[in-house]
Design brief:
38% of the residues lie in helices and 16% in strands. It has 615 residues and is an alpha/beta fold. The chain has three domains: 203 residues, Rossmann fold, CATH 3.40.50; 159 residues, Rossmann fold; 191 residues, Thiamin diphosphate (ThDP)-binding fold, Pyr/PP domains (Rossmann fold, 3-Layer(aba) Sandwich). The strands form five sheets. Strands 5-4-6-7-9-8 form a six-stranded parallel beta sheet, with helices on both faces. A six-stranded parallel beta sheet has the order 14-13-12-15-16-17, sandwiched between helices. Strands 19-18-20-21-23-22 form a six-stranded parallel beta sheet, sandwiched between helices.
């Protein structure tokens, strides 16, 4: 079939299918695109020809549309992959941050960027960055550190080799992540006689690698020796679809479960064995159990510092069993590694354990600790009459999250990313439905909140997607509010304005520093100016309102749920009231300072580090 490289690429993507809940669907259901020189004349033409089979959605910012692709992948648990394409130069570089988000969170996204001419005859072209000593380098090389698969297509026939490898990398549970293809402008337009077999329909199935039998034997022996075992469930439980297996395993062997940020909503919050979120943004119950556990079964988690309290959350003698499709993650900290699919490993490990169960006293303690956690959240999330302009009387993040949590239904999907909301939602969103939560905290990318929610809504058009965003993230990236309006993907957007980067101000001052350049009041400015977020959202076609009290918020949220268009609720909130319950977290505190408060903070940091596990 005589096709240009761009046409062949599009035709191949259309031919890839996958199966979800017994139904065959496109593996690549759509493309986010901002066209420019480098992708409009060839790839853009090919996408226009295939507009009914591979729909194209126009983004407003290349980073935003690639973040939407990440949100889509998270919502589909990596079963479907969105494509994002940009022009060369700044358009491409705008997507690098989103590639980092996908890489850190192990999520599949296909990124296609225009590139300079392979012939080099017209060089230097518009937006080209020239390297004097290496003319092969372009800005697209910046994607190499944040891509699981990277290639530059220098001849049309290379697609026959590269595309299957890119797809396989994105779908393999052990290597899942972003794939990037650089597409030189002249090569996109060149044609080749492609074999028809290259475009035959292929249905991809989720791979479920089984663990080595000896690994299972060692893991079972380790768990049997435990008196106080604990399960940490991570995002891999979602990717595997192992929620039911996790519940069966925990119930049969009476092992309490704590959640990472990515693993939240693997088990309902009301389940008696769910002891809540663990780590720096975790709760008192989960962290108390982690501190006394003698064996931890870490399922589908990469054990980030926010999960492990920078490796101070566990006893030095605590043993780890690492269950993960990636051996890199399974073997961390001298764990007994079980490399395999979470669902299959949990089922087979349960068979090996037979009727073994944890001590009743340990389970009872988990129930008592967890009841205390829920009582604390109920107390701080309760509505009050707050609503004046005084910071001390402004509603808190916990109260805003609590207002939504109280009226949430199982199908609601809560989403957030950076700033103060990860800690507040991780504690205050008590999942009533499985797979109802997305907090992008692998990369903690400001700006993901609105763009990622747009992608999530595209993946789940029948679910209510509620995104929580601070004023800092809103100002950094908000244009996909307009995208959601244009495309008809309704979101509920909760904007909490606490006057700047308040959670970083908390870190800054909590480690002895002076408030500087985080809160608007601490910046070099001619006077504080508060943004009218509701008016701004209305200017982009959203329905929006500003509220002052939790009672007003409750009424506005009810209207937002009834709305058929994106609805923004903006509210001034306290910059200094936060949910407590986390663990130690190592950050860099100066060894030398002219402030006694900083020197004191350094001594406290050094003391805290004494509890760190080195292996």
């Amino acid at each position: 079939m005589r096709l240009t490289a761009a046409q062949a690429l599009v035709r191949y993507l259309i031919a890839q299918r996958t199966e979800i809940d017994g139904a065959e669907v496109p593996l690549f259901p759509g493309v986010y695109a901002i066209f420019g020189h480098g992708n409009v004349t060839s790839l853009g033409h090919a996408l226009e020809e295939a507009r009914n089979e591979l729909p194209t959605w126009r983004g407003q910012n290349e980073q935003g549309m690639a973040l939407a692709a990440v949100g889509f992948a998270k919502a589909t648990r990596g079963r479907q992959i969105m494509v994002a394409t940009s022009s060369i130069g700044p358009g491409a570089l705008n997507m690098v941050t989103a590639a980092g988000v996908a890489h850190a969170n192990r999520l599949p996204v296909l990124l296609l960027s225009g590139d300079t001419f392979q012939s080099r005859v017209p060089d230097p072209v518009l937006q080209q960055v020239e390297h004097f000593g290496d003319p092969t380098i372009t800005v697209n090389d910046a994607f190499k550190p944040v891509s699981r698969y990277w290639d530059r297509i220098t001849r049309p026939e290379q697609l026959i080799h590269s595309l299957p490898h890119a797809v396989a990398t994105m779908l393999d549970p052990a290597t899942r992540g972003p794939a990037f293809l650089a597409l030189p402008q002249d090569v996109q337009a060149e044609s080749f006689d492609y074999p028809e077999g290259f475009f035959e329909t292929r249905v991809h199935e989720l791979a479920r690698p089984r663990a080595d039998r000896q690994q299972l034997v060692r893991a079972a022996a380790t768990v049997r020796g435990a008196r106080r075992p604990l399960i940490i469930c991570g995002g891999g439980v979602h990717f595997s679809g192992a929620e039911s297996s996790l519940q069966r395993f925990a119930e049969q062997h009476q092992i309490p479960v704590v959640e990472t940020v990515a693993g939240k909503a693997c088990l309902l919050a009301s389940h008696p064995l769910n002891a809540g979120p663990v780590g720096v943004t975790g709760c008192t119950s989960a962290n108390a159990l982690a501190a006394d556990a003698d064996v931890v079964i870490a399922v589908g988690t990469r054990l980030q510092d926010f999960t492990t309290g920078s490796w101070t959350a566990f006893q030095p003698t605590c043993e780890f069993v690492g269950v993960n499709t990636a051996g890199f993650d399974a073997r961390k900290h001298a764990a007994v590694a079980v490399v395999g699919d979470a669902r299959e490993v949990l089922d087979e490990l349960s068979q090996s354990l037979s009727d073994w169960a944890a001590d009743e006293e340990w389970v009872h303690r988990a129930e008592v600790e967890t009841a205390g956690y829920h009582a604390y959240i109920d107390k701080i999330a309760a509505p009050s009459d707050a609503g004046s302009s005084s910071s001390a009387e402004l509603p808190t993040y916990a109260q805003v999250v609590g207002a939504v949590d109280r009226v949430a239904v199982p199908s609601d999907y809560a989403l957030t990313a950076a700033g103060g909301f990860p800690g507040e939602l991780n504690n205050g969103w008590r999942a009533k439905g499985l797979d109802s939560f997305d907090c992008e905290y692998g990369f903690s990318c400001m700006g993901y909140e609105i763009s990622g929610a747009w992608g999530a809504k595209m993946a789940m058009p029948d679910r209510e997607v509620i995104t929580f965003v601070g004023d800092g993230s809103y100002l950094m990236m908000n244009s996909d509010l307009y995208s959601s309006v244009l495309s008809g993907h309704k979101l509920i957007v909760v904007v909490c304005d606490n006057g700047g980067f308040a959670v970083i101000h908390r870190l800054q001052t909590g480690q002895g520093g002076v408030g500087y350049n985080n809160l608007i009041s601490d910046t070099r400015n001619a006077g504080e100016v508060y943004v009218d977020f509701a008016a701004h959202a209305r200017a982009m076609g959203c329905r929006a309102e500003q509220v002052s009290t939790i009672a007003e918020f409750d009424a506005a949220f009810a209207r937002a749920r009834e709305s058929d268009a994106t609805y923004v609720i903006a509210m001034r909130t306290s910059p200094s009231d936060w949910t407590e319950g986390g663990t130690f977290w190592e950050v860099g505190v100066p060894e030398v300072s002219n402030r006694q408060e900083v020197r004191d903070a350094r001594r406290e940091m050094d003391a805290g580090k004494q509890a760190q596990r080195l292996i």
